[in-house]
Design goal:
Elements lengths: L6 H14 L12 E6 L10 H19 L3 E3 L9 H10 L3 H18 L15 H17 L2 E11 L4 E3 L4 E2 L2 E2 L7 E10 L5 H6 L9 H11 L2 E10 L16 E6 L10 E4 L4 H9 L1 H11 L5 H6 L4 E9 L6 E7 L10 E4 L5 H10 L7 E2 L56 E2 L10 H14 L3 E6 L5 E2 L1 E2 L9 E4 L3 E4 L26 H4 E3 L6 E4 L3 E2 L2 H4 L2 H4 L12 H6 L2 E7 L5 H15 L10 E7 L2 E9 L5 E4 L4 E3 L4 E3 L5 E9 L10 H8 L1 H11 L6 E2 L2 H23 L13 H24 L2 H17 L5 H18 L4 H10 L16 H4 L3 E8 L2 E9 L4 H10 L1 H7 L6 E5 L3 E5 L1
Parallel strand pairs: 1-2, 1-24, 10-12, 24-25, 26-31, 32-35
Antiparallel strand pairs: 3-4, 3-7, 5-6, 7-17, 8-9, 8-11, 8-16, 10-13, 11-12, 14-15, 18-23, 19-20, 19-22, 21-22, 26-27, 26-30, 28-29, 29-30, 32-33, 34-35
Helix pairs in contact: 1-24, 3-4, 8-9, 18-19, 19-20, 19-22, 21-22, 21-23, 22-23, 23-24
The chain binds one RNA strand of 87 nucleotides through helix 7, helix 10, strand 17, strand 18 and helix 17.
Length: 904
RNA sequence: GCCCGAAUGGCGAAACAGGUAGACGCAAGGGACUUAAAAUCCCUCACCUUCACAGGUAUCCCGGUUCGAUUCCGGGUUCGGGCACCA
């Protein structure tokens, strides 16, 4: 073999080998399958470091499982529809399709240069009719099943560009291109009834034991299941004047609450500005009308709505409290969401923080009805997955700890102090008539019963989750397969007329979708009556495509159905890898689709699409800049910056640049590092090794040029070590029985490394510590200077183990070294090494000795020593005895094989 | 605003079930080799006290549980992810 390690040469020859042997082609066979999937990329142009990290992780897992004997599927494709292609078209005049296809082929080349083992024979792109025709088909099935409906809903409207804006395109309440103040506008849109699956989506989270806890909690909170009560407030006399019956069906205003125990503390009702009652009141009251108008002057993003100043207006309408019979005024408030519950909440300022603030601002009464005095039954604790999340607008603070003791004692129940904030914990009822002295749960039930008996309320399970609006007023997406006919209404496109093909030559201009101006697209005949009709010009949310691609990878060539039996064989995905930013939306929609596909009878296995989930952290880099003209910063790429002891300087001119913070690699801060350049300078293996070594996969990873050098240095060292070893000829067979103590030590280290590496990669997904273990073995080999035949045999064993372990991470160099070490066959097809239990055994154990928890010494004991012997030896230790002299030992603690602690 | 995370030397990190804080690497300093440089190899490297042995302090902050807390609990600070039309 070459003495010098040349990454370019090594990588070229390994990649040529894999291609010649079609090494990554997955075939359905009788072996145990392992489906390893990375979230497919949006073809934005070039690969970025986040992609490199994502795909290195899945490639390592796929290669490891393959060496474990699994039948591995590791596919790749492109999430090809989306907004950036339209933006590129607006900016540079190139059609979204053309831009997308060219990006895809460029990125594919980049992926190959990194040596990722993808089965490209299964490549798919969501913008191709062969793919999206099946989601059109599924949509029609769901429409027939009643899981799809159309209703009005609010969008961001740019009044200058006359177009709908994505939340991302609304900046500080203004359209990103026009700068116009964005308004809310209602338009009809298609919805998928994901709420029909809310219980399943919630309950099945408990089965996802190999998902990160944080993701499961986020999803549980997002679904936000809560048990509460709907309460009807009848319209008070005189309040109904000029109100149409539609404003208040049944003459009752219905609210939803998870805190019926506070119902005696209601001092007003808050409704959303879009609530029918508010709209009706606006008809006769200019102040209310002004408020409703003002509420429209805003985007629809929840974060923006939730942070705006809390405002409201009295509607001049009263309702009757169903239990006290008192008159309660109705207000419209900008923090009540029309989309949640009934769009109306009962306000209890004493026991809800938002109501407290609102009442304080508008001088409304606060009536205390819950006392802090502990009751006999303690309040229920928050139950995580079971009942996670403060779901209702009324449920600001489920008690998570016992309330502090009030001044009062016993039954008397002292009022809580609400002068500074609301008292939101559970407690004992006061000022609540016959319900006084009841604790939360008893009060909840008694009041719910009372309301049900009076037919003024009912227990109700509620979800925070809303139905999924899938209509987008965009061009570069999958056409929604519906036709609008004057006489037949909305008619689904019949199956034999699918796909509805998106014309690929159009160019968006920033105003309305070009589809709305393309007569050849929207003019059609009604599939039902044959009369002239208009085709739907909205397209699907791009989450639609990414919700089922994992299943389609099993049978991407199928043209007679969405899925076939191959999907049952490969599903579920055994390991899914992707960014934490997808923790809720994408992963929830994909879970929903899996259940939908199951329920329309498609061949998928199980109830969940992804068995094990790894969410990797972001790739961040330092930012550098110089102050440019008119106060703007000129951002300088980290690759062009040299870090010195004094600070950062630009390589080109040697002059200083300013150092900004560490941020996610992005175009706007020009801190992205092009993987291609680094591959050229250091090799793909060094990039992969650096990515996997520098941080655990779920943490953010900081780009660091010096770190890449370190990774390359390690590979060089390994190469040289193998080269020096093999230069001496073939090593003899290992004679395990006759090894010296030093030789046994090295062999133990080898087998410890094998065990640690396999556990870290296979079970823990902690690649950084696996690599650290490999480095330790290399260091041990470096120090090991024996030159006997058996020493060479030991080295052969250690180096072979190292190369096999590293093969998933740095596959190219491993490919060369494996052959150089004299092994038949390619390392990609090698079997994962097994640790030899006999080699791991040691005859002495080290105990750490503490006195009062402070480390004083350590002692070595033979394996199997009794606790008494360990204690005696510990006490005999000079430095330990020093700290025991003259003191009585109160307690002796022995942790077997680890530690002794004397408490004096 | 709401939900979910994270915080450990000069830096990236490790400590997996509550048991030696800092493995492994980067940077830095010293040395060897070399005419020289690069490359490579060896040594030092949390902070304070000490010639040394050793001792003290230290895992974002404040409290708690425990023989023992980076790890568990309560309260905070800062940073990051998500909030339904970015993907």
């Amino acid at each position: 073999m070459n003495e010098q390690y040349s990454p370019a040469e090594v990588e070229r020859s390994a990649q040529a080998f894999w291609q010649q042997h079609d090494s990554y082609r997955a075939r359905e066979d009788g072996r145990d399958k392992f489906y390893c999937l990375s979230m497919f990329p949006y073809p934005s142009g070039r690969l970025h470091m986040g992609h490199v990290r994502n795909y290195t992780i899945s490639d390592v897992i796929a290669r490891y499982q393959r060496m474990r004997g699994k039948n591995v599927l590791h596919p790749m494709g492109f999430d090809a529809f989306g907004l950036p292609a339209e933006n590129a078209a607006i900016k540079s005049g190139v059609a979204p399709a053309e831009w997308t296809y060219s990006n895809m082929s460029y990125m594919k080349r980049q992926l190959d240069a990194l040596g990722f083992g993808f089965d490209w024979s299964r490549e798919l792109a969501t913008c191709r009719p062969e793919y999206y025709r099946w989601e059109q088909w599924l949509f029609v099935q769901l429409l027939k099943k009643g899981l799809v409906y159309r209703k009005n809903s609010v969008v961001n409207w740019d009044p200058v560009d006359h177009t709908v804006l994505a939340n991302e395109q609304v900046i500080d309440g203004r359209g990103w291109r026009s700068g116009a103040l964005v308004e809310q506008r209602e338009i009809p849109q298609w919805f998928l009834k994901i709420t029909d699956y809310a219980d399943q989506l919630h309950d099945d989270l408990a089965t996802l034991t190999e998902w990160p806890e944080a993701v499961r909690t986020m999803q549980a909170n997002w679904i936000g299941r809560s048990e509460g009560v709907e309460i009807d407030f009848a319209l008070a006399d005189g309040s109904g004047e000029k109100l149409t019956p539609a404003a208040l069906p049944g003459g009752k205003l219905t609210v939803y609450t998870t805190r019926p125990d506070t119902v005696f503390g209601v001092s007003f009702i808050s409704v959303a500005a879009q609530h029918p009652l508010a709209l009706a009141a606006a008809q006769r009251d200019t102040q209310v009308a002004a408020f409703v108008e003002e509420a429209k002057q805003s985007g629809v993003a929840e974060a923006a709505l939730a942070t705006q100043e809390k405002k409201g207006v009295a509607l001049g309408i009263d309702v009757i409290h169903p239990l006290t019979g008192e008159r309660v005024p109705v207000w419209a408030a900008n923090f009540v969401l029309m989309g949640y519950g009934t769009g109306a909440v009962m306000a209890v300022p004493a026991h809800d923080q938002r109501d407290w603030e609102f009442a304080s601002a508008y001088g409304l009464p606060k009536k205390i009805v819950v006392s802090a005095t502990p009751s006999l039954t303690p309040p229920r604790k928050g139950e995580g997955l079971q009942d996670a999340g403060a779901a209702g607008l009324q449920d600001a603070g489920a008690a998570s700890s016992p309330p502090p003791c009030g001044e009062g004692s016993g039954e008397g129940a002292a009022p809580s102090d609400i002068s500074q904030a609301a008292f939101t914990e559970h407690g004992t009822l006061i000022n609540s008539g016959v319900f006084n002295d009841l604790a939360f749960e008893a009060a909840f039930n008694a009041i719910a019963d009372a309301l049900e008996q009076k037919s003024a309320g009912r227990r109700r399970k509620n979800f925070r989750l809303r139905d999924w609006g899938v209509s987008r007023q965009r061009y570069w997406g999958c056409p929604i397969p519906v036709v609008y006919c004057k006489s037949c209404g909305a008619v689904p496109v019949p199956e034999d007329q699918l796909p509805v093909v998106l014309p690929e030559h159009l160019k968006p201009d920033g105003a309305a979708s070009p589809l709305t101006k393309e007569a050849s697209f929207y003019e059609c005949a009604c599939p039902s009556c044959g009369e002239p009709a208009r085709r739907e010009t909205d397209t699907f949310d791009t989450f639609f495509e990414s919700s089922w691609y994992y299943a389609r990878f099993a049978c991407p060539d199928l043209d007679t159905a969405m899925l076939d039996e191959r999907a049952r064989y490969w599903s579920p995905v055994d390991q899914y890898v992707g960014g934490i930013e997808h923790a809720v939306l994408h992963l929830l929609y994909a879970r929903f689709f899996h259940k939908l596909m199951r329920d329309v009878g498609l061949p998928v296995a199980g109830d969940e699409p992804f068995k094990r989930l790894l969410c990797q952290g972001m790739v961040v880099a330092g930012t550098y800049f110089r102050d440019g003209q008119n106060g703007k910063k000129d951002w300088i790429n980290p690759a062009d910056v040299e870090l010195t002891a004094e600070g950062a300087v630009l390589r080109a001119d040697g002059q200083p640049v300013q150092v900004g913070g560490r941020e996610k690699m992005s175009k706007s801060k020009n801190n992205g590092v092009d993987p291609e350049i680094i591959i050229r300078s250091h090799g793909a293996d060094a990039v992969r090794l650096f990515m996997m070594f520098t941080a655990p996969p779920d943490q953010s990873l900081e780009w660091n040029e010096a770190g890449i050098d370190g990774a390359a240095r390690f590979l060089k060292r390994l190469w040289r070590m193998v080269s020096e070893h093999t230069a001496q000829g073939a090593a003899p067979a290992l004679q395990v029985q006759s090894l010296s103590a030093t030789q046994k030590d090295l062999r133990r280290k080898t087998h410890q490394t094998i065990a640690k590496f396999g556990d870290d990669v296979g079970r823990r997904l902690q690649f950084n510590t696996a690599i650290a273990a490999a480095m330790e073995l290399v260091n041990a080999l470096q120090k090991f200077d024996g030159s006997t035949e058996q020493d060479r045999a030991l080295r052969q064993e250690a180096l072979s183990a190292l190369v096999a372990c590293l093969a998933p991470i740095t596959p190219h160099i491993a490919h060369s070294l494996w052959t150089a070490l004299g092994h038949a066959g390619a390392v990609i097809d090698a079997t994962w090494p097994e640790a030899d239990a006999a080699a791991l055994a040691s005859d002495a154990v080290k105990f750490v000795v503490q006195v009062n928890g402070k480390l004083r010494s350590s002692i070595e004991m033979p394996v199997g020593s009794s606790n008494e012997a360990v204690l005696a030896a510990a006490k005999a230790d000079e430095n330990v005895a020093k700290f025991l002299v003259g003191l009585a030992i109160k307690k002796e603690i022995v942790v077997p094989g680890k530690l002794v602690n004397f408490v004096v």
